[in-house]
Amino acid sequence: GIQVEQSPPDLILQEGANSTLRCNFSDSVNNLQWFHQNPWGQLINLFYIPSGTKQNGRLSATTVATERYSLLYISSSQTTDSGVYFCAVNSGGGADGLTFGKGTHLIIQP
Amino acid sequence: EAGVTQSPTHLIKTRGQQATLRCSPISGHTSVYWYQQALGLGLQFLLWYDEGEERNRGNFPPRFSGRQFPNYSSELNVNALELEDSALYLCASSWGRIISGNTIYFGEGSWLTVV
User: Fold this and answer.
1) Residues with pLDDT less than 70, chain B
2) C-alpha of A90 from chain center
3) Does residue B62 have a cis peptide bond before it, meaning omega lies within 30 degrees of 0?
4) What burial class does residue B20 get, using C-beta atoms within 10 Å of its C-beta: 0-12 exposed, 13-18 middle, 19+ buried?
5) Size of interface A-B (CB pairs under 8 A)
6) How far apart are CA B53 and CA B70, in angstroms?
7) Whole-number Å distance between alpha carbons of A12 and A19
8) A43, A86, A87: best to mutate for the B interface, most B CBs within 10 A
9) pLDDT digits (tens, 9 = 90+) for A8-56
């Protein structure tokens, strides 16, 4: 099956800093989503972005499908941005569902 | 509009017992997915239901089973509980198939602890 690798695994930043999270995938995808898991466990949708660039406030994402990677940018970090960020993909191999990376654990310190 | 709802929020069972978890999808969504998030193992795909039928299952033993009801809600049953079944169980729903480019939305999860 498709492999999803996220980097870095852990990231500690001060409030106000910018960050870039990376997601590499091993096959072409027809669905790619970024999620933020808050400390209570809920997964919040950030972007549906199998290709191209999107922005939503301080967050933006870019997927270069031909090179099999996606980037999530967080600008002017706030403590509420802390949590785990997951990239998840579907490669269209017949089975539905998303394959998740192991996530990037982000801690924003005040 | 209500999101995906799951119950119970927390559940404590003893080894060998059965656990039943429930999920109500977003109104209008017909596909329901179950994921297990065990400590240190990330999110693992469990089951996918669409239009009342089980369409696909992940690499889990048969004691993990479930069903989808005519109103598209779903339940996950875990029989003969083992300690390693302790995890956060997440349900998600989508309007159509992920393979077709649809977005999935997760509920808040059910924490299962097996003692």
Assistant:
1) 1
2) 14
3) no
4) middle
5) 67
6) 10
7) 10
8) A43
9) 999 999 999 999 999 999 999 989 999 999 888 889 999 999 999 999 9
